[in-house]
Amino acid sequence: MTASPICTPHHIAIVMDGNGRWAQKRFMPRLAGHKKGVDALRRCVALCGERGVRVLTVFAFSSENWSRPEDEVSGLMGLMASALAKEVSSLKANGVRLQCVGNRSQLSEKVQAGLQEAEAQTAGNDRLVLNVCFNYGGRWDIAQAAEQLRLQQQPITEESLAQAMSLAHVADPDLLIRTGGEMRISNFLLWQAAYSELYFSNALWPDFDAKELDAAILDYQQRQRRFGKTGEQIVQATPKPNSTAKH
Length: 247
Hints:
Layout: E1 11-15, H1 19-25, H2 30-51, E2 55-62, H3 70-93, E3 96-101, H4 109-122, E4 128-136, H5 138-151, H6 158-164, E5 175-178, E6 197-200, H7 210-221, H8 231-237
Parallel strand pairs: 1-2, 1-5, 2-4, 3-4, 5-6
């Protein structure tokens, strides 16, 4: 059953965990799981668009992932390059604007060029913003924002840091999902997730489907987001369903 459009999260962020374990359970190389993960992401983008989600941010490659086996890292880089080439036309046709977030300086020229081309091709789209966090870390994001402000000789405040973050172009995530059964956010969106609702799914990322997404959205819809206020304050401020505006 599709979750109600009422209170649908504007911005969903996902730690796409479990690709390697999905492959290992099937006696396949870990890279095969990452390829299936691309299929799951394609499916999730379409599902979010159908449900009225306006921003989807996914954790594709952590700055800590460089410590993985060399063949897996090189395979992931190749997969990123090929996925960009294959998916950009579909993203463009479906109104999805791609933004690649992270430290690009360590990426190959081929991957960097692919990222720039994909962003340029989809720049005019406004149905859904897809942020792909690649070579990204939450601590890196905070540090680079502070360094920007230092170089610009700007005061460091919560507001100025927020504007210097790599996701300043979108609102903070309402719902942060992690698949794969692990219950941590692993250096993902440390600043932006300060008030995100957290949801942990036991599904491995390649198995994350409409049922799993709707379960996460339904769970989100049943929560009360207080942002430091009391529950009573939130209830009092909530418009009554049949109330009429005074003119």
